[in-house]
Amino acid sequence: MLQIDLWKRVLIWLTCVVGLLLAMPNAFYPRVEAHNDAVAAIEMGASGNGLEEQAAMWPSFLPSRLVNLGLDLRGGAHLLAEVQVEDVYAARMTSFWPEVRDLLRGERATIGTIRQQPGPDTELRFKISKPEAIQEAASLVRGLSRPVTSLTGAGASDILVRTEGDMIIVELSDAEKLASDERTVQQALEIIRRRIDEVGTREPTIQRQGSDRILIQVPGIGSASELKEIIGTTAQLTFNPVVSRTSDADAPAGAGNKVLPSIDEEGVFYIVEAAPVVTGEELVDAQPSFDQNNRPAVSFRFNPTGARKFGDYTAENIGSPFAIVLDDEVISAPVIQSHIPGGSGIITGRFSVEESTNLAVLLRAGALPAELNFLEERTIGPELGQDSIEAGRIACIVAFVGVLVFMFLSYGTFGVFANIALILNVGLIFGLLSLIGATLTLPGIAGIVLTIGMAVDANVLVFERIREELKSAKGPARAIELGYEKALSAILDANITTFITAVILFAVGSGPVRGFAITLGLGILTSVFTAIFVTRVLIVMWFERRRPKTIEV
Amino acid sequence: MRLRLVPQETKWDFFSRPTLWLGISGALMVAALVSFFIQGLNFGIDFKGGTTIRTESAQEVVIADYRAALEPLELGDISITEVFDVTFEEDQNVTMIRIQAQEGEEAVTADMIRKVEAQLQTVAPDITFVSVESVGPKVSGELITTAVIAVLLAIGAVLVYIWLRFEWQFAVGAVMALVHDVVLTIGVFSELQIKFDLAIIAALLTIVGYSLNDTVVVFDRVRENLRKYKKMDLKEVLNLSINETLSRTVMTSATTLLALISLFVLGGDVIRGFVFAMIWGVIVGTYSSVFIASAALLKLGVKRDWSKQANTAGNKFADIDA
Prior knowledge:
Oligomer: heterodimer
Helix content of chain A: 40-55%
CATH class of the largest domain in chain B: Mainly Alpha
Order of helices and strands of chain B: HEHEHEEHEHHEHHH
Number of helices of chain B: 9
Distance between the termini of chain B: 43 Å
Structural class of chain A: alpha+beta
CATH class of the domain at 6-26 and 383-546 in chain A: Mainly Alpha
CATH architecture of the domain at 6-26 and 383-546 in chain A: Up-down Bundle
Largest interface: A-B, 75 and 76 residues
Radius of gyration of chain B: 25 Å
CATH superfamily of the largest domain in chain B: Multidrug efflux transporter AcrB transmembrane domain
Strand content of chain A: 15-25%
Largest sheet of chain A: 6 strands, antiparallel
Number of domains of chain B: 2
Distance between the termini of chain A: 19 Å
CATH superfamily of the domain at 6-26 and 383-546 in chain A: Multidrug efflux transporter AcrB transmembrane domain
Number of helices of chain A: 16
CATH architecture of the largest domain in chain B: Up-down Bundle
Largest sheet of chain B: 4 strands, antiparallel
Helix content of chain B: 55-70%
């Protein structure tokens, strides 16, 4: 009666072994962490400094994934920033004014002189001295509009021009505002990521939240204000003349020149003139686009002063390369194809569409496009995290031992089976956490402790059921079988409902709450698995060996 | 000899004094609501906005000195409490300082925090700021909404699940028990003025999960017994089912409480409120699955004929031939 197919047994034990193997690195946390760091460093091309020894501290055939520790356990800083997307509207309008002015000056004969008027930042207002020509002037300004470059806003124009008496008012269209917001946030995200990556901290989280927010979590950093400083530093974008290209990092540069590495080609260096032709501060826009041969390219636009400098330089240097340099790394070094007047140009190269998009983002990413407003900031010191881990560990062990003893006293031999399952259960939780790269937080530890308490529930249900079945004078084998059979629906219903709440917590929760939802949810999965399969196999194996005439549960 | 928390066989009547239990629960719920509306919850910065600073120093903490140091900054309402915990070392003096959200400030002011830290260093030069957390009013408002949505969603989802797996009367009974647990937990938090933050919402949802777990196990047995004893009175079926599952209910509550209590005592002060909510929830959840959920089921009545299609529901002769 009590039979479990061999393949099922093998599968169950195999699952346990794999789970425990995955969990094992966490038992040697500092050692494995050092190993992982060393391996990552070696992959990046570093060597020496005992890196190889550190890498050898953990055998490479064993799994080496670890549970990520959340900020509240490891210490670090957390920021929630809101990107002030409206800043960009104002900047756009300011830079639009010279263009409008230059255009209308050419038409002075019909519209007279123009004068800018005060108004909200996000609008451009001006009067003309011959009000009768106002419609004409407005349509001239409309001629400056460009189609919106986004999927949803395709076809719409980027500016709205209206007239009020003798005043012309220009502002961004709604479609353009949407597209602009999207670009601004993307850009801010990209800049923040680059700056934090440069500092080289471990596993930062930089995520977009909602339409205009960015969540930044950096473990191991001293304080939130330190993090803000890192984000606030401006990246330097320059356009420099290229002297030559080399593969030697130590090549003699010559006076007034410097050697810079290429950002994406390994081992390639450029010798460039140290004085830039134009800097990124003079760039107003950069967009992914296509050249005349329909290959991906990046178009860009300078402000008037930048445009003049750039125009002069390109006119004199057709055929020679110039370098686009970001934070002392050469992004690309295109060859100047022709004189570029008017301050807008196009960078061609061997780009894929994706690369051209990224380059556009990077080009725009000179300075943060808009100010960041910090809505939430948290600093957790490493000592507090360490204390929490320590307290959590002790509480876990005490809870564990307490439950083990209690189960043994209550159910004897069967209690031992449940205890083995419980130990496996905690191992499996850690294995799963490592496997999916989840983050363990302080409430997460509470979730594990709660799981330790609740995990035995499924076993208790089964054991109580077996007791009941034994009362109705059935043989032990039949009682065990019925116990499992009849308890199953209660186990499933009870755990599914709890699982539902865990899923909802995960979906709507954030930060530490989410960490709790993860351990609770995983704990439910593993405890049902261990209760239904593991203890059952254990009991069946024990039963097959002993063949007891009577059992006491 | 085995450890038994509950005698081997019990035949306790759980419905002998229905009005008493419902009365107690009702009174407690009213008290909880009154306390909630009069006293209100002691919202943490997650929900109210503001700044909390946790300090550590080897020197004895004199709260009045701290307060005096912060006075000149004119930051409005400041609360300073010293924290004690068994896990602290001898010379580990910890305080929590809470500063209200500054008027007219939508975002967090780094400047203010710097000033506070500088002022405190004049009182205790070796002071360290082990954690500094600020939440702007804009976010905190949203966090409340999300939290309320989470709790309502959880209760709703569970209602639907039980309705699908059982009958609507069971779902209503279970949800009444849930509401009872949530209300009492909020009541305890407002009465004792324990800090109510995001983690407590997680605890509330866990309570929902746990209470449900218990209720479902009882209901599962009720369903089984209803099929088995087709002519038995509903009240007796309920009593039988509760008695049969009682030993399990107590066992599971005991192991869970064992684990939670060890966390409460040894887990440090940071999550103590959270663990307290869960301990309370386990106790009320266990009680409510017996006295609220089942009592509600008894009042609502239940369709007895499980073997036939639903279209015989309401036909009072449906179970005559069984």
